[in-house]
Amino acid sequence: MADESINKGRRRFLTASTAVIGGAGLIITAIPFVETWLPSARAESAGAPITVDIGKIESGQRVRYGWRSQPIDIVNRTPKQLEWLAKQDPRLRDPDSKEPQQPKYCQNATRSIKPEWLVFIDICTHLGCVPDYYGDIKPEPFDPDWKGGYYCPCHHSRYDMAARVYKGVPAPLNMVVPPYHFVDDTHIQIGVDPKGAV
């Protein structure tokens, strides 16, 4: 009788041990499989927000950064450039930014959080070329009445100083404004909406 109770206890121990070891083995085997569903560090960093220092960008200057493999332009617009924005409305395809090419908090006359700072993805909405910055308010070969903005050399699309597209050019939409917010007076974080933004 004593031997039978020892064997039953031993069987329970061996059965439980086998179940625990088998379960642990199954979990260890599943880890690499589950990890394949997670984005790689490279993919995570490619989509991660970036914080940029705008403290040294002078009035009228444009600086380019990279975010998600896209060129992000930040322009410190001059008072004169801002003055001409509303006067360009009759020449623009979507002057009121009704198309959803910007977050709601940038659906305004300057397409920005702070009027002097333009932040947008510098990719032409026609075929994806990168337009050139022509910030001076002076006649240009492509537009004798130029008031500053962007000109796409690929197919001659033009955009004003709020990255809004002109009428009569191949590009169908304004250039995209990404989510962004001001961390402080000299830093912008691109890729994250301001707190409380809808």
Mean pLDDT: 88
Q: What is the N-to-C succession of helices and strands?
A: HHEEEHEEEEEE
CATH class division of the largest domain:
Mainly Beta
**Share of helical residues:** 10-25%
| Straight-line distance between termini | 75 Å
**Binned strand content:** 15-25%
CATH superfamily of the largest domain: Rieske [2Fe-2S] iron-sulphur domain
Radius of gyration: 28 Å
**What would CATH call the architecture of the largest domain?**
3-layer Sandwich
| Structural class based on helices, strands and sheet pairing | alpha+beta
Number of domains: 2
Q: Note the main sheet.
A: 3 strands, antiparallel
Helix run count: 3
> Taking strands numbered 1, 2, ... along the chain, how are they ordered across the largest sheet?
1-9-8
Low-confidence stretches: none
Topology overview:
Elements (H helix, E strand, L loop, with lengths): L1 H34 L5 H7 L2 E4 L8 E6 L2 E7 L2 H7 L31 E5 L10 E3 L14 E3 L6 E2 L20 E5 L2 E4 L8
Antiparallel strand pairs: 1-9, 2-3, 3-4, 5-6, 6-7, 8-9
